[in-house]
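Quick one, T. Sequence first:
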Amino acid sequence: MNHMHMHHDESGYLPEGIQEVKNPKYPVGTTVELLTDHMSDMLHAKAVVDGVYDTTVYSVTYNDTNSGDQVTDHKWVVDGEISYEGSVDVGDQVTILAQHVSGMQNATGTIERMTTEPVYMIDYYSSEQERWVRNYQWVVESEIKAWEE
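Structure tokens:
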């Protein structure tokens, strides 16, 4: 199972302690192109940067707490959205605190990947929903590029 067709939380809630990047490559308000397909209508979509943060970012596999279905390699959750003892590495189990999609909060997950590249909260235009999706969390810097008209 993946979350390509699920509704994403648009609250813009930020985990406590998350730090903004001082001089980001794509500052708040910048129009960018998405190079990722976390959701089915994201690839090459137009987006606007809402925030840029400096934190460790994780992809996780977990079982949906509503359906029990496995969600593989969910991108992304950040420090403050997972709970663990001591340090964490790829393959470790964590508790997911994020509420990006239904069935995620309080799930036990396994860390698939980690990165420290800047992470962005964006608004993007959904061609499927024919509207702007607000405060989408998260895309990493390598998943976006400058928008070209």
